[in-house]
Amino acid sequence: MLSLMPKDLTRAARWFHALSDETRLQIIERLSDGEQCVCDLTDMLATTQSLLSFHLKTLKEAGILTDRREGRWVYYSLSLEAIEDLQRFIGSLKPRGRGLRVSSKRCD
Prior knowledge:
Keywords: DNA-binding, Transcription, Transcription regulation. This protein has helices at 6-18, 22-31, 38-45, 49-61, 80-92; strands at 36-37, 65-70, 73-78. The chain is an alpha+beta fold. The protein has one domain: Arc Repressor Mutant, subunit A, CATH 1.10.10.10. It has a three-stranded antiparallel beta sheet with strand order 1-3-2. It is elongated, with a radius of gyration of 19 Å. The relative contact order is 0.15.
């Protein structure tokens, strides 16, 4: 049986919320090639800067992205640690056995 701490489930819920939007998935795909400036992401995704900023904020709050400022530009990149944690979490959900389940008396 899977035994996850409530904080793990809270963190996973934030990840899945952040990943539940097609635009945010496109952002992640673009950033998988490396760090990008907001202006470049705006052009690549053909969106407005305000809408892009909303999606970037959601991904950053979920811990999926990191950012750095250089002059007047902000550059975003994927958080390798968060991506690895997400992969581990999803991996922990795999069924561990194929045995028959003993039926509960409540199910009879």
